[in-house]
Structure formats: structure tokens, C-alpha cells
Design goal:
The protein has a 5-stranded parallel β-sheet with strand order 2-3-1-4-7, sandwiched between helices. The chain has a two-stranded antiparallel sheet with strand order 5-6. The chain is 47% helix and 13% strand. The protein has 221 residues and is of the alpha/beta class. The structure holds adenosine monophosphate. The site of adenosine monophosphate has 17 residues, from helix 2 and helix 3.
Length: 221
Amino acid sequence: MRIVFFGPPGVGKGTQAHLLAQRLNVPLIATGDVLREAIASGSTLGLKAAEYVSKGELVPDDVMIALVKDLIERRAHDFVLDGFPRTVKQAEALKRALGEKGIDAVIGLCAPLDLLIERLSQRRVCPRCKRNYHLTLNPPKRTGRCDSCGSPLVQREDDRESVIKRRIEVYTKESQPLVEWYRGKGLLREVDGTGAVSQVFARVCGAVEIAQPRTPNRQSP
Ligand code: AMP
């Protein structure tokens, strides 16, 4: 299957995309993670992307389109895509790149604005294994350390309050038009992103018409 996760910052795309990729046993392509790794490594892509990511702006379409085309070519037939497309231009490029096989569904996650802001400002991430935590609702067992790999948790630079505001503005202006674009193509499956991770995942599974998960996953805001 080829599934795209779509929605505003903080809605839980990353968490849900990760779970679905595991469940479907297909590669996860998360453009935000790819960019953060590139920035950390100081690669040419990282140098180009850093100034946009830290300010909550979108990395230019031509850079993102070239990156994702390359990732898709290398990652085979099926995938879960998180963070791409974010503009209509990117969606058109994805359609061209995939040709006839196209994508199977776009999971459009939604949640109220105050919940998005609260989730983002309370989020801490493991830079190594990419696991996310919420300071009060889903804290790590050892303060400040990842449960999975023990690495020190960090706050993403773009999860600072001033940048969160900008990311939401950018989403509304640049990305929200994609809701209608994908609805018009009959691909959009809207999913309520509020509640625990396991509850949202059950809805996601329902939306892609696969079996419901039997064991609840960790809790979320
Ligand atoms: P994310 O981890 O998906 O929230 O992405 C973090 C940041 O990476 C975004 O705020 C953008 O600056 C950049 N980014 C990720 N994916 C894209 C994309 N498809 N187009 C442009 N910028 C992107």
C-alpha cells in the first residue's frame, strides 16, 4: 500500500505514520526526519534546509520534490509517507512520479488548534530513535531519557512557541488547500486525531480498512 499522512503540525502524523508503517511492514518516509538528519550531518541538503526548518518555513518545493523522488525510487513499491506533500505543487509532482499506480489513500488527521499547540510545546523527542514523548501525558520512565535507547531527549528547535505559531500559519496557507485537492480525487480519509495514540491508531486502521490493533499502544495527549 502507498499511504500519505496529512494534517497540521502537532496532529500526530509522525506517531501514527510510524505505527502504520510497522503494521503494514512497509518503509516509512518522513521528510521532517530526513531533513533533521541532513541538518545534523551538515550535508549540502542540510545546509540548504536549516534556515527554513528552524524558522518554521517550508523548504522550497524543488528541493523537496527532488529529495522525495529519490527516496521513493530507492524505497520500493509500497510506503507510508509523512510530511510530504505539503503544497499542491508537491502533490502534483508526487502524482507524476508515481504514475499510474498512484497512492491508495491520504489519511487527513485533524484536531483543534489549542490541542495542537499544547502537544507541540510539551513534545520532547529522541534524536536517535525518533520516539516522541509528551512531558505530562506520555513522559519517559527516566526523566529526560528515551525509554527505547536511553539517549537524552531534546525539544525540537521548531517546537518553540514563536516557531509553532509560524508553522501553523504556513500550514493554513500552503498546505490546507491540499485537503480539497485530495478530497476531489476521492483519496482523502479524514480521521479524528484527538485522544490516545491507540484510539487514533484504531481509527487510522479503520480508514485504511485493515484489522484493528489488538494491543493498545502508549498513551498520548
Ligand atoms: P515535520 O517533522 O514534518 O514537522 O517537518 C519539520 C520541518 O521540515 C517543516 O516545518 C519544514 O520546515 C520542513 N519540511 C518537512 N517536510 C517538508 C515538505 N514536504 N515541504 C517543505 N518543507 C518540509
